[in-house]
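Annex B. Sample input.
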Amino acid sequence: MVRFDVLTLFPEFFRGWQSDSIISRAVVAGLVDIHVRNLRDWSNDPKHHKVDDRPYGGGPGMVLKPEPVVEAVEELLTEGPADVVLMSPAGRPFTQRLAEEFSKRPRTIIVCGHYEGYDERIREILRPEEISIGDYVLTGGELPAMVVMDAAIRLIPGALGDPESPICESFATQQLDHPHYTRPEEYRGYKVPEVLISGDHSKIARWRQEQSRKRTAERRPDLMAGPTTKGEAKRVPSQ
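Annex B, continued. Sample output.
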């Protein structure tokens, strides 16, 4: 079983996602265990449950305090070993290869950032892995955390109805997926390619490979050069 522990200021964000068909089925089948924890439970402010404060040196926004994050992670680690991940714009770019890694890790603790960012001592004390899903601004780390878990969970054997689905999708072979067609055979003058209704499976396989390479070259030529190993980190405070 794969386990995820999520530390967030907004646990309600995850309720609808956890009831999704694929995620829900994986949980019911005992393939994955998801625990969403409210970071405010570790606040040292009993009245307001505050977890952030203004940055030293001035500047806009608020910064997540070190005590609640560090103490929450340390308490969760008493339940057993885990990889600790911060959703962070300064992190390693999230890819399909990394999703495969997460799908094989027994347990991961994910910290969702918010406000202007993390107190640097969180990084210095916990030495976490940092992951970014892209160079753009989001309100918080909740959506990125769901992206990471969703991409990983669907790769766990048994999570999808068809075991071949994950190996046939975009990025599984460092290329985009080929075009797909279904009924009707003709729609508004657009016909299904003859090869797909020919019954010749070797020709169909070759056509799909050619279309996959063509689509990748046209839309994502960067993928043709191989896996990304390093990404440009931009200042995006919310992931």
